[in-house]
Amino acid sequence: MNRINKKLKEDGKLLSIYFTAGYPHLDDTVKIIGELEKNGVDMIEIGLPFSDPLADGPTIQESSTAALKNGMTTEILFEQLRDIRKTISIPLIIMGYFNPVLQYGVEAFCKKCREIGIDGLILPDLPFDVYQEEYENLFKKYGLLNTFLITPQTSDERIFQIDNASEGFIYMVSSASTTGAKQGFGSEQTNYFERIASLHLKNPQIVGFGISNTETFTEATEKAKGAIIGSAFIKHLTQNGVDSIADFIKLIRC
Amino acid sequence: MKDEINAPSSLGKRSVNSAYHANEKGYYGEFGGAFIPEMLYPNTEELRLNYIRIMEEPSFKQEFDQLLKDYVGRPTPLYFADRLSKKYGTKIYLKREDLCHTGAHKVNNTIGQILMAKKLGKNRIIAETGAGQHGVATATVCALMGIECVVYMGEIDIARQAPNVARMKMLGAEVRPALSGSRTLKDATNEAIRDWINNPVDTHYIIGSVVGPHPYPDMVARFQSVISEEIKWQLKEKEGHENPDYVVACVGGGSNAAGAYYHYLDDTNVGIIAVEAAGKGIDSGESAATSALGKVGIIHGSKTLLMQTQDGQITEPYSISAGLDYPGVGPMHAHLFRSGRGEFISITDDEAMTAGLEVSQLEGIIPAIETSHAFAIFDYKKFKKDDVVVINLSGRGDKDLQTYIDYFRL
Ligand SMILES: Cc1ncc(COP(=O)(O)O)c(C=O)c1O
To answer: By the number of CB atoms within 10 A of the CB, which of A134, A229, B145, B237 ranks highest?
Structure first.
């Protein structure tokens, strides 16, 4: 069974952390992953940086630009991750935009992920229908779970379609926004969380965007299985460096 | 031809099984589609489900036509360029989009889209701009309709296009600097898309060319198709037949070209010539010749040809002309290139500037530097004496005066 599915079956709420590979320094990738696992994080999204991250707010834009300046490439990331499964056992997901994957070759990319022990991909700009028509078989062939996003604007009908096509979890974007944009949740989010819970989807949901502290983590996971933190973690890395990852995780899960 | 002048615009009506127009999913051959994050899905879906229906409403057509006539100044003339024709030994007609209000073809699209936004009940407009022409055309129609307008513009472009920034401000628009990435047109487009993600309900995004996710390339092409619709009856009046031998246009994103080609795309006896900016030369590392340098990829939600690194990072193009300085090309043009339907020629900065000066002095028309590229093809493409060649004069050169002054030390 895929590590993601196993993890989703565990009791308790899951904490997933996103970071941009190649930031703050080109060679921080393995160290960051190790620190995150050591400090009890349940799942990691490794961000493959892209020059034009449409769905991201300033924090992840800046970390992506910096990572590319540092020299990060798809090839280098795969090289850094080559032996990652000798030490790391939690699920690892690569999150990025579709164009770098397309240039690497979608099949070659999937194959490499399998070799390394990557469990899934999140490619926000690979649309659901294109995935189903052109790439689903490839992802399955290499044992990769693909995760789709839903937002407060996504219709129930489309959510059910996405639920049907998913085999891991559904990424619930907390509000109509780019990453890191909103501070705290309001009644719009509460209603949305309740609406999704009432649909009784077959896949668990993990909430992302706008989660930055214990309070938002707790609110987000009241109904959902887990939550993803990205921008807040990257800000912490910028301010405190990779040696202080334990402090950040303690702040979320106290 | 009075009947044609008074007939309502077809707004791009076309035969169903065209080989060169978008299919119902927004694909031109292998290019196009909507590669967008889910956050944008409701926005583009609302447009996709409604744009053709709205365009076909008689009240929409009537308002569009009225504004194009009384406000934009259409039909724009099709002018026989006598001295230029003599010089190059062929029959050259100029489609005078430079005479449109605001000085370029861009306003055909912004008029259409502001009416579309009103029909969709939107009360806020966003746009991206590079040189500022599309920003000015958007700010203009927003002033006309009394709608709030925010234009994203790269920080670097704001510094080098000061007069257009001032025009937008005078027209009441807010100009927001795009501070991310390379701080030029592609980043301004990213910022506009991010704004739309954050404001999905009340805001319409007026994209400035035949780029972006479906249905934008098709919608913008339909609004611009008025150009070739007019060329057809104007040419019939002057030459006795609707079809020229060639239609020539410069291609940045490709909207003026899409409009000039539109009604000729399926008439394969009409040659289609697309002119791209080679910048300092195709192999110089400073170029915007997407057909020569691009590979298939995804930019701003569209699968098309784009300039990128081997690793799939989008690269920064270069051209002396800010309007051609885009790393991609609309999916229609990627398909015209791949299928061989279009002939693509790239022109350097120097060749374009020289051609711009020549047209100024032979015809008394100072073209926009974008258009000057289209006038520089005669060294690369020979025409027969009785060929009829229509060049789309997409814009006038007022906005480029400083660049011409610096280049020619005027
Ligand atoms: C006069 C003129 N021509 C051409 C262009 C290029 O755009 P497109 O290729 O969409 O026509 C521009 C863009 O700013 C322009 O101002």
So the answer is: A229
